Amino acid sequence: MTANPPNINNEYNSVLNLRQFELAQSTKPFKARGFKLQRCNRCLIADFLCVCNDANPIAIDSRFLLIMYKGESIKPSNTGRLIAEILPNTKAFLWHRVDVNQLLLDAIDDDSYESYLVFPALYAEADRRVYHDFELNWSKLGNQFTINSDNELRQSEKKKQFIILDGTWTEAKKMFRKSPYLVNLPMLSLSDINAHPYLLREASRVEQLGTVSVGLSILNLLAEHDAYQSLLRLTQIFTHRYLSSKARNPQNLIKLMKLECDIKHSN
């Protein structure tokens, strides 16, 4: 079994704890693009653009569980930590094909939660249970529900847990294929209808949503309005300031202009 990350003075953000663990285990310094930039140690944006004071944590019954590919938690562009900033009960674990963290397995098997693996339906095996967001009216039943084998909603005392594979899409597909402990979980497939537009990495297919886009879509699906608005606001600010720190790149300037226009129209 892999060593478990220590609880390193990062309050409730499990992604930041995982980042500190990965940095401590690394044999050489991590150098992202712009590594010479003086960054905030928490939000990883330039010190003068720090977004830490813009986070407004919200408590909800449902839980996100992030399984992160090696090095993902260290990247300044990672948005999984935004979910963890807003939803303090978020759990984050480092993926390993062989030495699976027992705490990860325990979290997946937690009997107080009904777990769903969030991943596009087109990657599902023929006999896999797959549910689509546009088919569900979860918000009408509140948080306490589950889905039976006939795709019917029924009341349940269990809370919901959404498992997200966090990495590039090549890495996410590898985690999907090579994680036997995920095979028996029902899948939730999100459409691009509610996809969040503020992407820091370009996707090659519409179903390939970024991590924070997945979080926003699920919060919207659950009608968790306060948490949705809090995460949306932090994501807008984070993306705006992240792109501002890289604005000399013409593509980033275009993204920044579009983002400023969207923020203006949302207010």
Automatic annotation (TrEMBL):
DTW domain boundaries: 36-247
UniProt key word S-adenosyl-L-methionine: yes
Protein keywords: S-adenosyl-L-methionine, Transferase, tRNA processing
Transmembrane segments: none
GO MF term set: tRNA-uridine aminocarboxypropyltransferase activity
GO biological process: tRNA processing
Highest taxon above the source species: Bacteria
Annotated Pfam families: DTW (PF03942)
InterPro entries in UniProt: DTW, DTWD2/TAPT
EC numbers for this chain: 2.5.1.25
Name listed for the protein in its UniProt record: tRNA-uridine aminocarboxypropyltransferase
Upper classification of the organism: Bacteria, Pseudomonadati, Pseudomonadota, Gammaproteobacteria, Enterobacterales
